[in-house]
Amino acid sequence: MKNLAILILLMILIFLFHISIAQDAKSIVQKANELLRSKSSYSELTMKVIKEDWSREFTMKVWAIEPDYAMVLITTPASDKGSVTLKREQQVWNWIPNIRREIKIPPSMMLQSWMGSDFTNDDLVRQSSIVEDYNHKLIGSEEYAGYECYKIQLDPKPEAGVVWGKILSWITTEGYMEIKAEYYDEDDFLVKSMLGSGIKKMDGRAIPTHWEMIPEDKPKQKTIMEYVKIDFNAKIEGSFFSKQNMKRIR
Fold first, then answer.
1. pTM of the model
2. Shortest CA distance to 207 belongs to which of 222, 193, 225?
């Protein structure tokens, strides 16, 4: 009986240990997510799409109320000026001013390229939540780009409607900055990697401001996104994110 009691106690301790590790991993991911997010935000960014034989640049403005609302406005070049992507809860639309056409994006197209870049519709409007839609597992620590990092595996919950089969994330042990992420499909093949650098203080927070999204099967191709300005906890009302405003915002 004594041996049985010891065995049961050990099993309970092992169970509690694994629960603690899972909670720690989720907490780390949540802190990294909150570093770049706030209840609301306004940001200005540049994006450069680099292909093997051509490249193009955009500038854009982004308004967001986490996690349900986002609006992305293209401000240059002139050929794409006024194009908008709008997210309202689970629905996403694109507005193309040149042809005055509104397009609703179905869930099946969330993995499609956004404006010809290596970022998807899901990346730009953050349709899925890396905190709530995934189970998190701390699989070790690793140095990357001179930073000691937690290495965390994110596996989608069975009921979550997410687009990735697995994500690996490198988050710095100091400052909780995510500086590398790898995105895998359902067959466990690496699809693309996102690399963060250019650590700067913006609106009081030290964050990576330079991001590169690199597709695994096209090593000569990548998309560079750089933050120019971020205002965390900006004053934005939910009514701002309307289809009517999508068509007239400048």
1. 0.83
2. 225
